[in-house]
Amino acid sequence: MTDRIDQLLASKDGADPALLAALDADDLADALGRALAPDDEHRVRALGILALIDPSPLGALAQAVGQVLAEPEPDPFTLAAALDRASALGRDAVPLVQAAAASGEPIVALAAWRTLEQVATSEFLDVLTQMAPPAGDVVGDQAAFALSVIAYRAGFSGFELTPADDTRIVAIPADENEVFFIDTSPPTEDDFALLSRMPAGELYLVRPEREGMLAIECGDERLLLCIDSDIQMGMPDTFLQGPSLAGVVTALAPLGTDYSVRYLVLTWPDGTGGFHVMLCQPDGVQAYYGHADSDEISDGTATFGLFTVDRPGACPISLTPSVSTSGVTLGGDLLSMTETVTDRLEPEATQ
């Protein structure tokens, strides 16, 4: 066992980049050994370290994930963690993960579908569609959403989401005084450095450039809107040509050590010269919805309202995005309620 791996395993606030850069072959062997040891209490964390230091297709992470998947009686939580870490392998994770999507263990199948959602590309869509369980439970619903994300990433039709209708939209009440202002700014050097350390799979294969990022602050949260560079080059026309995974919204960890994806930005044409925009959580829960009518698109710019979709924990907002080849700007009231709306699924108190 090496001191540097011990330090990484003991860290509570993310991996120190300087420490990662100092790792040598002995450290890599130590992390791999811990990840391969079924009785090592740090096995899952060791898998995470391998995802940071050797996510190459034939590297240590792929070896460790493959062995966990091949164990005759793997612990389902360890297996789910291995499937989650496999996203760092990008597209190369698909052959490893695909079989686990058919597992009878829900936690394993769920983790597999979430990883496939992150990294699978169009050539896998047909076979994944055939093996997907029916929607109606947590695994089936996740599989259906994963297929939509994979199709949107490729620009394929046939897997479109259902737009949110007016009955599912919640707004800030006119007399509401407890609100946060939403502030925007270009990303900082620190923002870009943290984002650059995220593997492509963790960004759902979205390829943002700094010019396509927007930092958003609301209350004590800091978010980064990251638009795929290929999508941005043709906005908003791109959104009229077919479905797209336009980008992701990442959230800064409370200790400021890393970003993680909070929302996927999905768009698709409405068939009448406009387009829909839906921000979804990685589990498929719809969070925000907007619709740009054809008359809201002119001179290379589309401007539309973005609204909160009713769900447990929903926080109403009031803002108006504009999209063009220059990126995304936020206008309008730029407000968010400080408290979430009442959970409408909560049962009434009994008498």
Description:
The chain is 33% helix and 25% strand. It is of the alpha+beta class and 351 residues long. A hairpin with a 5-residue loop joins strand 6 and strand 7. The longest helix is centred in the middle third of the chain and has 17 residues, at 138-154. The radius of gyration is 21 Å and the shape is globular. The model is unreliable at 343-351 (pLDDT under 50).
Helicity range = 25-40%
| Straight-line N-to-C gap | 61 Å
Strand order, main sheet: write it out. 1-11-8-7-6-5-4-3-2-13-12-10-9
Sheet with the most strands? Answer: 13 strands, antiparallel
Number of helices: 13
Task: Provide the β-strand percentage band.
Answer: 25-35%
Low-confidence stretches: 343-351
Shape: globular
According to DSSP, the number of beta strands is 13
Radius of gyration: 21 Å
* Structural class assignment: alpha+beta
Query: Taking all residues together, what is the mean pLDDT?
Result: 91
Order of helices and strands: HHHHHHHHHHEEHEEHHEEEEEEEEE
List keywords for this structure.
351 residues, alpha+beta, 13-stranded antiparallel sheet, 13 strands, 33% helix
